[in-house]
Amino acid sequence: MRLLTAFLIATLTFGGAASAKPPLREVDEIDDALMHVAIADAIRKSCNDINARLVRAYSELSRLKSLARDLGYTEEEVEAYVTSKSEKARMKDKAENYLLANGVRPDDIPALCQFGQEQIKTQTLIGQLLR
Question: Which end of the chain has a smaller Cβ tally under 10 Å, C or N?
Answer without folding.
Answer: N
